[in-house]
Amino acid sequence: MTDRRTVFPEGFLWGAATAAYQIEGAADEDGRTPSIWDVYSRTPGKVLDGDTGDVATDHYHRWPEDLRSMADLGLGAYRFSISWPRVLPEGGPGLNGKGVDFYSRLVDGLLDRGIAPVATLYHWDLPQGLEEAGGWPARDTALRFADYAERIGAVLGDRVHTWTTLNEPWCTAFLGYASGVHAPGRTDPAASLAAAHHLNLAHGLATRALRSVVSPTAQHSITLNLHHVRGEPEAARKIDAVANRIFLGPLLDGCYPADLLADTAGLTDWSFVRDGDEAAIAATPDAPLDVLGVNYYSPTLVRMWNGDGDGSRAAADGHRQGAASPWPGADDVEFVRQPGPYTEMGWSIDATGMEELLLRLHRDHPGLPLMITENGAAFDDRVAPDGHVHDDRRIAYLRDHLAAVARAIAAGVDVRGYFAWSLLDNFEWSYGYSKRFGIIHVDYATQRRTWKDSALWYRDVISANAIVSEV
């Protein structure tokens, strides 16, 4: 038997990712105040089994153990998020020293182990006080976010490798304010479009604020869960507009796409977009987007609604059946169930979608540096009698998707790294603790961590800088 190797470029960045509310716990400790997810998860009927992130995986107290796992895996980078209400209670104005100290210790611990800190400023945990003042549909939230970025950047900016402003603003805007299946649980299509714009504006303002206070060598990024949309051309166009180009347009082209404005004209007049906003959002030579983060899990298949009940307009991509639509301006589009196999989320496993998405970005925006900031799968993982977690399906998923990344790189796409989602099993938003994405298993009753077979496999991939297959 011989080894066949798919080798990645020298310097390719290997990492794993988490998010604050999903792992930290310590919800009421050391000056942290509630976020919208604290309020939402504590509201009966919002999260499966009434689960909350109050304890999660207790990373706030167990971070040294988790750092040891990162080092043992050989990670070159760790993508984590900063809890806005932990460092700026109620959204400000004063920094909370204990909260800042936690992240300062984490960053120093990463650097001591040769792991690059990749900090996400917003992974969905808006301070509840800012939601009560209007939330993301209100312009002031974008201004407050820029202030938050500048304040935390001033104290951590000499040590953080990459600053990511937002994680998946599509989910924040449309699952949070249109379909209501994420915090804060509002169902107002017009408000969701305003939220999307103010998230874009927040990115632009925060990036410029960060550049004024952080190390000049730091990288600046945003992470988007771009949808790879297949199916009937008109249906695909509509979904692409509100899934992808609503963010890529102002960010990389300097304006919102005309077809998106036309599709949503019956919902809003877009008067919340003020003169100068699109220029403030756009990446420019003096304030470039150093790398675009791409999160990918599964492709999307669509067609125009035909009324036969064979698909779902309201529950795209595995979101809750019967919920309001997260697709303003595209309610006449139907989401078609794709062939299996599926993950525990009900998402089809298809790595070709990742390759095609990366090629599309390269074609539309030549030379744009990309980073896979999340990719992974949920399966029904259990500790076996031998004490191990045998997650062969996750290994197959990761192998196939890494191979897709390698093919895209061979075709000329500038992909600079890959972050597995997730380092740890954790609180999976509205699904509570029912879905396990981690490469490290967590027993939630005892907080015991157990490396899954996929962690051992990923460690070997990192060590070799290659996917190794026996042939």
Overall description:
It catalyses: Hydrolysis of terminal, non-reducing beta-D-glucosyl residues with release of beta-D-glucose. There is one protein chain. By secondary structure, the protein is of the alpha/beta class. It has a single domain (3-303, 341-465), classed as TIM Barrel. It has helices at 20-23, 36-41, 59-73, 84-87, 97-112, 128-132, 139-156, 169-177, 189-211, 233-253, 258-263, 277-281, 352-364, 392-410, 453-464; strands at 3-7, 13-17, 77-81, 116-122, 162-167, 219-224, 229-231, 291-295, 300-304, 333-335, 370-374, 415-421, 440-443, 448-451, 466-470. The strands form four sheets. The protein has an eight-stranded parallel barrel. A three-stranded mixed beta sheet has the order 7-9-10, covered by helices on one side. It has a two-stranded antiparallel sheet with strand order 1-15. A hairpin with a 4-residue loop joins strand 13 and strand 14 (448-451). The relative contact order is 0.14. Residues 310-319 have low confidence and may be disordered.
